[in-house]
Amino acid sequence: MAFPKKKLQGLVAATITPMTENGEINFSVIGQYVDYLVKEQGVKNIFVNGTTGEGLSLSVSERRQVAEEWVTQGRNKLDQVVIHVGALSLKESQELAQHAAEIGADGIAVIAPFFLKPWNKDVLINFLKEVAASAPALPFYYYHIPALTGVKIRAEELLDGIQDKIPTFQGLKFSDTDLLDFGQCVDQNHHRQFSLLFGVDEQLLSGLVMGATGAVGSTYNYLGKKTNQMLEAFERKDFSSALNYQFCIQRFINFVVKLGFGVSQTKAIMTLVSGIPMGPPRLPLQKATREFTDNAEAKLKSLDFLSFTGVKDGKPVASAY
Ligand SMILES: CC(=O)N[C@H](C=O)[C@@H](O)[C@H](O)[C@H](O)CO
Ligand SMILES: CC(=O)C(=O)O
Question: Cellular component GO terms, alphabetically (predicted)?
């Protein structure tokens, strides 16, 4: 097999893990969810069990089952399924990496261990290397999210010489607003075929200008179509349209950020927009309030991101733009 199989590019939705009202994983809606992303949002890559998927709040056995269900349901529909396998325990991470390879995932990603932390680049690389080695045929991505892990080792520094240590290294998911660091990841690796994926949805246009090859984020679940329009405008060098799209997306994100925005709220918004029940989050997260959902709904409508197109089984049917 040629390595890498194919480069990960374009939009990657960070999937939500649907749950039932009593907190169990609701596997039954994942098939529908895949179809929704592909058909309604034009998003054909997913990032499973990450921040948005509450991956670190699931048991190892649940993580395996969730990964397997997405791979199964995504077969012949999705381009790439990347599984986040980061964990505090190296052993668990290795087990999940090996499992991702066994089920036929397209790549694995790992965050820095965030309780007992690596304090320098070499230690972090050693940890990542041990995980990557458990899935030697899978592209490996580092998931840089310093605000949540507290591990502030700069991505540019980490990437320097990384392929000598981790031969399967294929790229980075960069969830930080430091465009100097991100720009230098691009600049110093322009001759390598890395996927440098930007992870701050409200600033993606800046990431594209800096050379991002794609993006991973939570809002692509329901604003994928809008964001794809921005990517297309950028591609054809229509920067004023691209900026209009970004501002439109920013108006929504800015609005919800002020109300308090996180994974719980993402679940509520996705339920509203897609009509697929995402359920509540798991503790320590708390379900979004009714007030939040009502406000978010009004904002989506006022921005023309959402319109109700009809009624089915007594419920309004929404369609996203
Ligand atoms: C912290 C977090 O969850 N970041 C997500 C991915 O990295 C983003 O997709 C954000 O949800 C998004 O940019 C909105 O702030
Ligand atoms: C946003 C993202 O990539 C995650 O939820 O992990």
Answer: cytoplasm
